[in-house]
Amino acid sequence: MKRIATTAARTLVALALAGCAGAGAPARSTSPQANAIGAVEQTSVDVWMLDIGQGSCVVVDCPGRLIVFDCGSSGGSSNELTRNNTEAATAWVRERARAAGALTVLVSHADADHYNLIAEAAPAELTDRVLLADPLHMHGAAFVEWTSNLRGGEDAVLEFTANAFSPADSDLQCGNARADALIANLAGSAQTNPHSAVVALSFGDTSVVLPGDAHGATERAAIAAMSSLPHLSSNQTVLIGSHHGAGTEGSNSQEWIGAWRLQGAIFSMRPTSYQHPTCEVVRRFDAAMNQRLAPHEVTCDGEEAHQTRDRILTTHDNGHMLVRLRGDRLSIYCQRRTPGCAGRLPAAARLPGRTAPTA
Ligand SMILES: [Zn+2]
Predict the structure, then answer these.
(1) How many angstroms separate the alpha carbon of residue 37 from the centre of ligand 1?
(2) Tell me: the pLDDT tens digits for 34-52?
(3) Ligand 1 ion: residues within 5 Å (CB)
(4) How far apart are CA 315 and CA 86, in angstroms?
(5) pTM
(6) What are phi and psi of 189, to 5 degrees?
(7) Vertex 105 angle, CA 103 and 107, to 5°
(8) What are the structural domains, with CATH classification, of the chain?
(9) Ligand 1 centroid vs 112 CA: distance in angstroms?
């Protein structure tokens, strides 16, 4: 395992991650077939938001590589989500990883609802890079065991230790797309949520932003990092709600929501005692967008229904989702369609349906 603390280590990380080959990356093979594949023009980047209950599981299709940004759930067999649903979703990720041939995993912070499905979803024998915002030992025995079998060996695990993060460390490449890690392991808190890695994945003029369970302090640090990445504030953006839409500890602040040119918001959640997202946070997103879609309802505060005319979606209301970044525009496809969805998920994706609630 490596802790990122030295310039040498940072250089190593950047080089290692640059190995994620795509149309814009240097050719890694001299075989004509590989070069031909590398030359295929990349016209979009697909970001899959899986419906895994109260948790988060995001998968990005890159040329020759899958990137998993968190995969975990504390929903279990309750909250309408059966173990079968979770198993079907992780089997889908495994199959997609095998088709891609290589895997990068990033865990935003060491809370189980962000990593406890990774050992099941991500084949260790295909995984050559694991980025952690919290130290490995904080991630539970099954996850630590999974990292002992990585294709990349123990050096595949890269920890962002306190005060040792810089955006230059996280040169995550995805073909012609770019992934900017704005912050990870924010210093000064003993809690895990504020340590969340905040990653913006961009393709052309379109972005999706993954903030983990960022608190207000994390969001402020990410906003400060945006000053050196001016493309981010002008890109058409889908913002994943911080901390599943919580409003505590300054999450989903007005300042954070206002930092983006918003085209949509997605909350990964299930109605539980946490009551994510809160209706107050949903109203903040509403106030930042003025899209005049057909009126529809978004679940908030547990089982409340908030009326909106903006592109606000939840995994509870909409099931699995696909955010397709096309460079000049973006679209969201949904398992269950509401007016913010461009259409249903492509049938070719063969994403598992959700079985009926047990209650
Ligand atoms: Zn969480």
Answers:
(1) 37
(2) 334 445 678 999 999 999 9
(3) 113, 213
(4) 13
(5) 0.88
(6) -135, 140
(7) 170
(8) 2-19+44-346 (3.60.15.10)
(9) 8
